[in-house]
Structure formats: structure tokens, C-alpha cells
Amino acid sequence: TLGTQTDYRDGEAQTDPYSPEYVVPSGSVPELLTLATLTWGRGLPAGLAEVEMIERAREKRAWEATLPATDNASQITKRRKMMDDMERKEWAFREQEIEKLQEVRLEVLKKLLQRREENRNELDAKCLDDHWRNHQKAKEEKIKKIQHDCALMLRKLIAKRKNVMGKLERRDIIKEYTDFASQTYAPLSRIGYFPDNHSERYVVKSFYLNTFAGLCELEASLPDSVTQVKIKAPKPKYTTTKTGFIKRSARLEVELAQVHQ
């Protein structure tokens, strides 16, 4: 009634196919034994290359069956010529295999070079993007500083334009107290005022808290209910009813006390 789910697929847990033992009768050479060197994962299951190898082996065995005997001098010459021709065919076939292998390696090399070029281009593009982003950031910071300096200079010019002739003006107290953005309510530190320097004036200084005589006077003024606390002991709860039975809550408390011990 239960099911399990593993992290592996069935193909990963499958073992190699079983190869049974065999016995070769005397006087027979089965063709299947010529493929005994092929194992699972190394030639099996057979592909196009293995099929071509099997066909070449069959042709070679058929060619070996057509070789003349070595009991005659003329037959020996013919046999040597046939063997030389077969050797040249084998070398030509080997050269073709080498060329195919070189072509495959060349294709792999081309793909590797192409991949390396793509990675290099991607890295160059990333470096260019980072360089452009840094330039943009520096440009924005420079523009922000220029705008800040421009606003500062404009404020200075506006302040100078208010009193071009340099006349002395009397202080308008009413105007300062009606404007909540004036120096009276919000003084600026750039004109020499630092609010944190006079923070001690906000500290509460009381005669009743800083002196012993003040504490005695404050204590004498308090009512007796503050200095003399009266504690009433709680009345015990009745654990029995009027008929003399123990209540269920009392039994539970006794059991909990026993369990706690």
C-alpha cells in the first residue's frame, strides 16, 4: 500500500546485460566468437562502425579461403601477389580512417575555437558595459555636484541682490516670529549656531529631586497609602463541597503536583 520515489532513474540502476558461458564443439569455429572482444559499452550495442568491421572481417575470411596453396612455386608467387594487394587495400583503408579521424578532430577544434571566441567577445562586451557604467556614474555625480554648486551660488546672488546698496536694516521681530522658517525657530549652523552645544538647558532641574531636603519634603507630602503598603493575604479556596466531597480541580492539582515531583 506504500510507494517510494527515488532520485535515480531505472537506467542508472540497471546492470550490464548477462553473458552466459559457452562451450565450443571440436572442429567448429563459430563466427560469433570473432566478436568476443566487444562488450557492453565498448562496441555493444553495435553501431555502423561495428557493422562495417564485421563485414570487413567476413570479406577477409572469404579472401583467406581463396588463397592458393603453398605446395607449388607458381602458386607461392600468386599468393604473395594477392597478399601484397590485400596489404595495400588495408593501408588505403587505414589512411581513410585516419583522414576521417582527423576531420572529426578538426571539427571539434573548430567548435572549441568558436566557443572560445564567443566567450572572449562576451567578456569584452561585459568589460565595455562596466566601463560605460562607471563613466555614466562619474558623469551623474559630476552633474549633481555642478547643480549643487549652482544652487549655492544662486542663493548667494539672491542674498546679495536684496541689499545691493549695503544699507543697514533694522531687525523686524514680528516678521521673524511669524515666519517659522526664520532664524528664531530654525537657526542654521553655517551662521555659527549649533543646537547641540546648549542641550543641557533642556535637562530638568528640580529642588525635590537633586537635594536631600527636597526628597524629605516630597516624601512628607505623599499620603500614607504610598509609603506604607498593606498586603492582604489571599483567602484559601475551599477544596471540599458542602457535602464533604473533594472537588475535581483539587484532585487535578494534587495529581499535577505528584507528576511534577
TrEMBL record:
Record InterPro entries: CFAP91, CFAP91_dom
Cellular localization per UniProt: Cytoplasm, Cytoskeleton, Cilium axoneme
Superkingdom classification of source: Eukaryota
Domain CFAP91: 4-156
Record's keyword terms, sorted: Cell projection, Cytoplasm, Cytoskeleton
GO cellular component, one term: axoneme
Keyword Transmembrane helix included in the entry's annotation: no
Tagged with keyword Cytoplasm: yes
PANTHER family: CILIA- AND FLAGELLA-ASSOCIATED PROTEIN 91
Similarity-based family: Belongs to the CFAP91 family.
Protein name (Swiss-Prot/TrEMBL): Cilia- and flagella-associated protein 91
Organism annotation: Sagittarius serpentarius (Secretary bird)
